[in-house]
Amino acid sequence: MKMNDITASVIESFSQTEDPRLKAIMSSLVKHLHAFAQDVKLTEAEWFRGIEFLTAVGQKCTNKRQEFILLSDVLGLSMMTVALNNERPDGCTESTVFGPFYVDDAPHYENGDDVSNGASGQACLVHGTVKNSDGQPVSNATIDVWQADDEGFYDVQKENLNHAQARGVLHSKVDGSFDFKSIVAEAYPIPMDGPVGTMLEATLRSPWRPAHLHFMIKADGYETLITHVFKKGDAYLQLDPVFGVKDSLIADWVNGEDGLTTLNFDFVLNAAN
Predict the structure, then answer these.
(1) Beta strands 250-251; 225-231: pairing state
(2) 126 is in which domain, residue-wise?
(3) Residues 99 and 1 occupy one common structural domain
(4) Residue burial 235-245, b: 16+ Cβ < 10 Å; e: rest
(5) Which residues have CB under 8 Å from 88's CB, separation 6+?
(6) Which strand (E) or helix (H) includes residue 79?
(7) pTM (2 decimals)?
């Protein structure tokens, strides 16, 4: 059977698929996978190595670490899907990658509380507002925040830690404002102890992410916002291995005369259709 006949036969095998979207996705996936194999003249040995790599990625996944998300991130696929699905009007806060270290059972805090909960790092005060595109405050928005400590580790990466650190959930006030204490964000390398790290080493890519703070903001009547705030002046802003940096998301961590570092960032949500 000729190569083009193989591709056509596989695509034809999806002809009875009832879900038109599933049929379109599977057909296009086969078309492009086969074209990739032909383009690079993929050998059987190389394909078996690829299968071993993907198997290792799956084996590295746990309930606290998602190596497949990390792989998607470093291949730029995560940011591509973000770009495809998060076009917003000018003035709305831009989205970026979710990352592999979000957890859905983070502790809840009141405004003004310290979400670092013992994480190592320089103390920091974070405050800002949540508004809509008309400049009106969005009250009672749910704000998930999470970050690494000054050693570059998220709490879920620490085997002997039995409580959450540097992550939490709070809500915007009536005027849309919020504030909490945490630690200053620092640059860190993505995990290099798995197959994704091996791939980065083999391709001579930097694993260092610029310093950032994760946010996920939800409110009734608005699109969910998943984003980062990046530290201005960070050495790795142009080298982010997951391609997540956007100019509008870069902000100053300001060192005050009282020795306290402050981050101020205002978020603008887009109304849901």
Answers:
(1) parallel
(2) 72-269
(3) no
(4) ebbebbbbbbb
(5) 94, 95, 223, 270
(6) helix 77-85
(7) 0.89
Same domain, 91 and 22: no
Q: How far apart are CA 161 and CA 217, in angstroms?
A: 26
Q: Which residue has the tokens 């005060």?
A: 125
Task: Write out the two tokens for 14.
Answer: 């999806």
H or E segment and range at residue 131: strand 123-132
Contact 69, 226 (CB under 8 A): no
> Residues 18, 99: one domain?
no
Q: Which residues pair with 131 in a beta bridge?
A: 137, 268
pLDDT tens track of the chain, all 273 residues?
Answer: 677 799 999 999 999 999 999 999 999 999 999 999 999 999 999 999 999 999 999 999 988 789 999 999 999 999 999 999 988 899 999 999 998 889 888 999 999 999 999 999 999 999 999 999 999 999 999 999 999 999 999 998 888 888 999 999 999 999 999 999 999 999 999 989 999 999 999 999 999 999 999 999 999 999 999 999 999 999 999 999 999 999 999 999 998 777 789 999 999 999 998
Which has the closest alpha carbon to 8: 26, 36, 27, 24?
27
Tokens of 92: 């709305």
Q: Are residues 175 and 255 in the same domain?
A: yes
For the stretch 155-176, what's the b/e string if a residue is b when 16 or more beta carbons lie within 10 angstroms of its beta carbon?
A: bbbeeeeeebbbbbbbbbbeeb
Q: How many domains does the chain have?
A: 2
Q: Are 229 and 213 in contact (CB under 8 A)?
A: yes
Owner of token pair 């595109």: 133
